[in-house]
Structure prediction request, 349 residues.
Amino acid sequence: MLHLSAAVDQPSAYDAGSYVELARLAEHGVLDFVTLDETFARPGLDALAVLSRVAPATGRIGLVPTITTTHTEPFHVQAAVATLDWVSRGRAGWRLDVSTTEGEARLFGRRHAAPADALWREAGEVADVAAKLWDSWEDDAEIRDEPTGRFIDRDKLHHVDFHGTEFSVRGPSIVPRPPQGHPVRVVDASEGQARDIAARYADVALVRSVSAAQTRAVRDQLRAAAARFGRDPGALRVLAALVVDLGDGEHAAEPGHGGGGPRQTAQGPLYRGGPVDLADLIVSWHGEGAVDGFHLTPAEPRRDLERLVNGTVALLQHRGLFRTFYPGSTLREHLGLARPVNQYAGEAS
Prediction:
């Protein structure tokens, strides 16, 4: 199964309607999910809040905000992501990121900047405790028994009693278990520091590379590491992450797929060409088994997303290589991922 997703970042947009419009366009193309980036390093809107506004205006597409684990409270982060899963009826994800600069640390005033390796280890702990807190309510913990006045079966709430290197969490969560069990966790695994965290905790790993061979090598590393962590390596979706510039329509400003594919730039791998060439590149890399799909960031948000959906995706659908409707309602179903079993089910409190 080919998986496709897109970014809806708009650095100069501060109105919700523009994000709704792009998410609906991506949903028209039956993409798995959209992402919205956020960083403490520059001004911008809160990605999770924006996608919470997008949720009721869309019906099927997954919604994946970037949420930085550094300087933020893990208990609050997991509750916010669980809330997005509830308000979207099971379409939430979460792209984990870290904050490495002293300038970002000064915004909070809690501690100094730390090395990336340490911050990614902390991000792994946040991912771990989030899953535990999502499971701290069993699925049938709410009983709503009016005759006895009991709203919750307290035997089905669990303390997680997590002790990490930088924080401790007792639990349980204040939000009932999300519709997906665990909202989808996404990690950019392009850099070495994040790769082990992606292999251990991510449902989707993004890889920024300029060739199918390079992407396949990282995919093999990620799946081998996932197996060492006791995971099913086939349950990790690996997507190639490209910036796409479709400004010249069918005629590439530079040679596209036929001329060697993406080029490395300061912003990451860039594909510049037409929608047909992009479709050919997607078919080639996926057909070779290098990737499970693609995460595409439009260079010009509105223009390139429209050409992606109405050009590239429509062509893939016409060829029978990409779906024409959503087979399910949750992001996990779009990705072909099972709903996780509650790790505390059956335990006494």
User: Anything to note?
Assistant: The radius of gyration is 20 Å. The first helix runs from residue 16 to 28. The mean pLDDT is 92.
